[in-house]
Amino acid sequence: MLPSEIATLFDVPGRLVTVQPLGHGNVNDTYRVICRTTFDENQFVLQRISTAVFPSPEKVMANIKAITEHAHGKIEAESDRSDRIWQLPRIIKTRDGQDFHLTKDGQPWRALTLISSARSHEKIEVPELAFEAGQVLGHFQRIISDFPVDQLEDTLPGFHCTPGYLRNYDAVLQSPGAQARLTASPEARRIARFIEDRRAFTSVLEDASVAGKLRIRPIHGDPKISNVMIDDFSGKGTSIVDLDTVKPGLIHYDFGDAVRSTCNRAGEEADDLDEVVLDLDLLTAFVRGYLREAGSFLTDNDHAFLFESVRLIGFELGLRFYTDYLAGNVYFKVKDDLQNLNRARVQMRLCESIEAREPAIRRILESASAV
Ligand code: GN1
Ligand code: MG
To answer: What's the whole-model pTM score?
Structure first.
């Protein structure tokens, strides 16, 4: 079925005017839908959930429903004390009352409210936006921090478990296709050596979790800068979107993912590796915004592992992109065959920059924590 046919199945008033591609997601297909009545217009987000990535879309939707209901209640309860109207998308049901529509050929489609008069950025340059991104993540984590984690499904077992990605990498490496790609590309071999040098470090967060130093909590799972919505009028963060990966996990996965995407001015698709650095001004602003909200629930151990999360999550994403390149680009959407290799180069360069700036990054994390 066409997106325009699917769009009419959801409970939104008006006649369908258009369905347009929205954003640059690497997994799902996302559209903006516009419907008009005689007197107004209704816009919403329509998405086809990738079953290759999310084998149980009903679990994804159950998590989104549970967490948004909880979060909307908290936002309402705090609204009188808040400096802004915080927003979070809500599920729009199908006309027959379902949370998503499954096509005859097994494709799950869902609709969500659109956060209007706000925009997201694939990459940012100014500390004011990094501050807002930090606050948006801290706010989201705070309002879901009291949600019972055992009521959330694990929609993607192994997601952000870096040693698991390493095992998968080792398996893919054995395939003839991966070996051919390695033989053909010195750049691919350079990344393979980069990974080898960091094997021992990949379990740093999982070990801390097993040792009881870090606790499993509700997390967003994918708080990259392009999932942060900034209000067009106030310039303040208003919402975090893309709630597919809300699940039990370590808040450090979120922190590291937000930092690696917010504090790299060159962005995930950079062409020039010399421009890829962990920007300390953006980091300072991000951490200040984050701790304004998250300071109230972080423990001493949580603080102690923030640097590791910054170093690890960029590396992990590089490993995931690289493995996907070696596997023939089966997970992340690509425009050309080398895109995942280039994405991996960018994240590994960022990891190098994080390692080179470790003392300065630790100082920023510690001084912001002490305020
Ligand atoms: C994927 O689909 P999207 O773009 O929201 C990926 C994230 C990565 C991100 C990198 C479920 O997110 O983990 O950090 O690409 N999502 C999944 O851009 O694997
Ligand atoms: Mg996502």
So the answer is: 0.97
